[in-house]
Amino acid sequence: MVLVLFYAEGLRHFVVDSIRATDHHRARTKSAPHRLPRGTKNLYKKAWQILVNDEILTTEESAEIQALIDYRNVIAHATEKLVADVNRTWNLQPPFSMIKYEPNAVERVKSLATKIKERMRARYVMSISLQEGIFEPAEIAYTEEIKRLRAIILRQMTDMKAEIDEVNLNIASLPTTLLDKLEPSHPAHMKRNGTLSRQGIACCYSLFRAGATPLAVAYLMRISFRSAKNRHSRWPKEKPTSTWCPAVTHDKAVNSDAFSLAALTTNTPVTAGVQGANVGETVRAAGASRASC
């Protein structure tokens, strides 16, 4: 982001100063008006239009530069709109519209700056600034660090893709009927304090018995990988006697909404033989005739 700020700001000042220097030089030999006098409103927008009129830039290139300048303004004045998604809450909705990060913004600004300087060389008085020399050590440090981080990120992306493919294969190997019965993402698997309920623990162990890996369980149940690993390490030692099965099929006389609500508001494991403790005599009668999930 610092590089985008510097390159975009340097390009703006270079263009304006070069246009003003050229107009000042022309005014000494002939009565040519100053196109960007001091106090000009919409200064930079008019500067880009001057370059388009002089065929230094195309209309498309001018629009691209102005879009990059707007992106530079977001970095300078509204950084939170670019980084609001850098958090551990996957479903966070910020109270404003986010701006998409532009990974190639630096390369695009530098490329356009090079084109503008090459095309202006034959027709304009070129402005020179010492700012580039002052910024050069920092520029080298940032560029080398970005190059190093890019290599690390690309390697991690390759490893992560392989891991994701492995998890998808593991989830695909689980019986669909089991997933339908367990409903791993059911809210009743979590307590209000964010920890697993006894139903959630039973669901974890059922998935482990079916061959799910801790990472697959973490994804299916929407829990942390650390929590899933912890349950997997304790799995051989803890053998719950109950099984959570919220998706069991009921007779038409059974109110399945009431059944789910009762399971959601209690932390006692639900089995087909004890359903009546949660939803009343009707469900007890229906549950007594069914085998445990």
A few lines on this structure:
With 293 residues, the protein is mainly alpha-helical. 61% of the residues lie in helices and 0% in strands. The chain has three domains: 2-129, no CATH class; 140-172; 176-287, no CATH class.
Write the layout of secondary structure elements.
Elements lengths: L1 H28 L13 H11 L5 H19 L2 H4 L21 H16 L10 H42 L3 H7 L15 H12 L4 H8 L3 H10 L21 H10 L10 H4 L1 H7 L6
Helix pairs in contact: 1-2, 1-3, 1-5, 2-3, 9-10
Strand and helix order: HHHHHHHHHHHHH
The multimeric state of the shown protein is single chain
Number of domains as seen in the coordinates: 3
Head-to-tail CA distance between termini: 55 Å
Helix/strand/pairing class, anyone? Answer: mainly alpha
Tally of alpha and pi helices: 13
Spatial shape: elongated
Rg from Cα = 32 Å
What percentage of residues falls in helices of 4 or more residues? 55-70%
Q: Unreliable segments (pLDDT under 50, ≥5 consecutive)?
A: 241-293
Main sheet record: none
